[in-house]
Amino acid sequence: MLTEYVEKIINSRVYDVAIESPLDNMSRLSDRMANTIWLKREDLQSIFSFKLRGAYNRMCRLNDEERINGVVAASAGNHAQGVALSAQKLGVSALIVMPTTTPPIKVEAVRSFGAEIILFGDGYDDAFGRAATIASEQGRTFIHPYDDPDVIAGQGTIAMEIIRQHPEPLDAVFIPVGGGGLIAGMAAYIKTIRPDIKVIGVEPADAASLHDALQAGERVILDQVGLFADGTAVRQVGKENFRIARETVDEVILVDTDEICAAVMDIFDDTRCIAEPSGALAVAGVKKYIERNNITDQDFAVINSGANVNFDRLRHIAERADLGEKREVLFAATIEEEAGSFQRFCQVLSDRSVTEFNYRYADSGSAQVFVGIQTQGGSSEREVLFNTLEQAGYALVDFTDNEAAKSHVRYMVGGHAQFVLDERLYRFEFPERPGALLRFLTRMGERWNISLFHYRNHGAAYGRVLLGAQVKEDEIDEFHGFLKALGYVFCDETDNPAYRLFLS
Question: Which of 136, 371, 465, 497 lies at a C-alpha separation of 20 to 30 Å from 97?
């Protein structure tokens, strides 16, 4: 069956619209990681993503009747642009259903290719359902973003190019995974032509649809997915994609948000390109793979799958990149509430650079400070730092991996509320669109009093909120039922030490 895909890949008609993207050496990252890392530059395509390969290869095979009736697709960005550009090239009518949360820059990019746009629903699943209905009602051909043999074959041309561009030994190829179209096409080609090359998928830890499916031995539907890497936020891997992956994928690596942000910085350092979070997944994966296995002197190819990132997301990415690279440590420290205590604390830090110091007077005995310290030696240096401070008599709590502390509490230090009773703390994610914050507050304030609130826009398709609500002990189950009925992703942070130290 794989040989059939190789034939389809070889005969794909992607080069009517796509370029053979360069395979560039990431010299800075290669030197740092003591391995040779090659970056496949799909960010240089006309739509700044690989997605046009599969979309065009599928659409150029429409018959005469299908061309007359036109096509429909559901997408929040890159696939939408690929379908719209392909439709323009082929003279076909295209209707794209995009979630209402889609950033205006992506909507306008699709509209610039002449496609008709319908904004519908809060996420991809809603848009997908609407597109399927339109296909049935209007007789349009639905162009699936990943679960289609011609789409898979179009994406597989990237593997064909890599093997032609790098005839020397190659130890592994790292491929970002969402629905699985890219890894299915590339893996089918690689394992047929060069079975010695490992195929390693990379997914966000909070959107691990292929990873979990391979572990379970069957496709699974995730209850929820994180939205930071929105291009790969897929709840279920494609059926055909999974069938191929089971035969061909050697491993799937999971990376967190901070590691993705660090990878965006790595790509920028080597290329001056700003990858989107999903586009940087493979770089994050190869770094984790090398460090985990203590590998040196090998050759790896990684895919930069796209660069469609909103400018206002860069603030968040920059804030988290050093944490992902283990070049910053965040923690709480207890110091004396007296003159000179901050000076003594800094003297213990010696020549280390302080990146953040948050403090507000709470009582006359002791003070809790929120501290960021720049480091160079990764986890080992963090241990040395903490040992030094503890030997000097300081009590510490590590916040480096504490999401609530990193996203919210650091901006709220000084908000103690001693007389607020029965307060519970929650983190939320909700679709970011006009009026969404007001609707969220309206629903939350219908019965329970809101005692704490922090919201910060990161330029993403979702909003992040930290909320405190006064909920009596005998009402907790009812309150959790209310939250689940709202349909927002939430996490109980009531026992989080960052909250206990700085906000409660």
Answer: 465
Q: Integer distance in angstroms from the first to the last C-alpha of the chain?
A: 60
340 and 280 in a common domain? no
Q: Which of 8, 40, 51, 326 is catalytic?
A: 51
pLDDT, tens only, 232-272: 888 899 999 999 999 999 999 999 999 999 999 999 999 99
**Nearby residues of 46 by Cβ (< 8 Å), 6 or more positions away:** 17, 18, 19, 52, 85
Give the pLDDT of residue 436: 66
As a whole number of angstroms, the distance between CA 61 and CA 53 comes to 13
Cβ-based neighbours of 7, under 8 Å, separated by 6 or more:
none
In a domain, 411, yes or no: no
Domain of residue 181, residue span: 2-43+154-322
Tokens of 329: 């440590």
- pLDDT class for 462, splitting at 50, 70, 90? low
Query: Domain check: are 318 and 330 in the same one?
Result: no
- 51 catalytic? Reply is yes
**Dist. CA 47–CA 24, nearest whole Å:** 19
Let me know whether 289 and 186 are in one domain. Answer: yes
N residues, the chain: 504
Spatial CA neighbour of 354 closest among 343, 363, 368, 365? 343
Q: Looking at 305, 326, 406, 407, which residue is catalytic?
A: 305
Q: Tell me the backbone φ, ψ of residue 298, rounded to 5 degrees.
A: -115, 165
pTM, full prediction: 0.83
The answer to whether residue 198 is catalytic is no
Residues 277 and 165 in one domain: yes
Residue 64 three-state SS = helix
